[in-house]
Design a protein that fits this description.
This protein has 282 residues and is α+β, with helices and mostly antiparallel strands. The chain has two domains: 4-214, SOS response associated peptidase-like (hypothetical protein yedk fold); 225-282. It is built from seven helices and 14 strands. The chain has helices spanning 11-18, 79-87, 150-155, 169-172, 179-182, 242-251, 253-276, and strands at 4-7, 21-22, 30-33, 38-43, 49-55, 69-71, 89-94, 96-99, 110-114, 120-130, 137-147, 159-161, 163-164, 194-198. A five-stranded antiparallel beta sheet has the order 3-1-8-9-14. It has a five-stranded mixed beta barrel with strand order 4-5-11-10-7. Strand 4 and strand 5 form a beta hairpin. Helix 6 (242-251) crosses helix 7. The chain is elongated. 29% of the residues are buried.
Length: 282
């Protein structure tokens, strides 16, 4: 399931990235967006607008109930979800989400994010609900989930939100798109593009929290490498050949040790990259 997520990108930046126009004037960062909180969405009713809807779908038959997730495998079999899947789809904007092991849940939370650190979209279904006390019409949504990808399995969780890349976003909020074209995208997202690290269990509280609660308290699930290119001066053609350079390294124990260390680190990096890119079944 997906019950907490993070929105920190300014709505102006979201407008630019997703080519939409906001219907609200401000939206402060929310480092712990929980059910009943409002979050930015793009709906099939008007995919040119960025709107604020409440997290947690409220069915017409029970106004006190909040359904935060819709299992992807049930979208065509359960009448409630099938109707929304056919007519009311939306994209939920997020910068990250929180998840923990299946047993410990948010007692042992991880922050899950995209490796490019860009905001992303989660598939969701929405409905307009009228508060019988105030008469106010409120948009509510449930995030679509699917089976876990490799990253979520490493965390120890069995589900994952359906994350939609730029190739399918517009189709998800286009009512002319056939369901048969959407259903194949209700699947685990590529682990290679994601990562996670443990954060403080103080995040369990559904109240607003400071940004410091998202600081890592342990290692990333998958190691990330930042390749730094350092220019070097090669003297070939200026009095030194490759063979003479090798002789110079061999004759200098300090240079030889540094060269061996460099080779060792490169070899470890290559092995780690190969390990991370081995995703059987995805």
């Amino acid at each position: 399931m997906c019950g907490r997520y993070v929105v920190t990108t300014t709505f102006e930046a979201v407008e630019k990235k997703f080519n939409v126009k906001s219907t609200f004037s401000e939206f402060p960062p929310n480092y712990n967006l929980a059910p009943s909180n409002f979050g930015p969405v793009i709906t099939s009713d008007d995919p040119t607008k960025l709107q604020l809807f409440r997290f947690g779908y409220t069915p017409l038959w029970n106004e006190k109930k909040l359904l935060i997730n819709a299992r992807g495998e049930n979208l065509l079999t359960k009448r409630m979800w099938k109707q929304l899947y056919t007519t009311k789809r939306c994209l939920v904007i997020a910068d990250a989400f929180m998840e923990g092991p299946e047993m410990e849940k948010l007692s042992k939370p991880y922050l899950v994010y995209m490796r490019d650190r860009e905001p992303f979209t989660m598939a969701a279904l929405y409905s307009m609900w009228v508060d019988t006390k105030t008469g106010e019409e409120i948009g509510t949504f449930a995030i679509v989930t699917t089976e876990a990808n490799k990253l979520m399995k490493e965390i120890g969780h069995h589900r994952s939100p359906v994350i939609l890349g730029k190739d399918i976003r517009e189709d998800w909020v286009n009512m002319k798109t056939k369901l048969s074209d959407l259903t194949p995208w209700i699947r685990p997202y590529e682990s290679l593009k994601m990562n996670a690290y443990p954060i403080t269990p103080k995040i369990r509280s559904p109240k607003e929290v400071p940004a410091s609660y998202l600081d890592p308290i342990g290692d990333q699930v998958f190691k990330e490498f930042k390749l730094k290119i350092t220019p070097t001066l090669e003297l070939q053609g200026m009095g030194q050949t490759s063979s003479s350079k090798r002789r110079m390294i061999a004759d200098n124990p300090e240079l030889s040790a540094k060269e061996e260390e460099r080779k060792r680190k490169l070899d470890e990096m290559q092995k780690e990259i190969l390990r991370q890119t081995d995703y059987p079944g995805e």
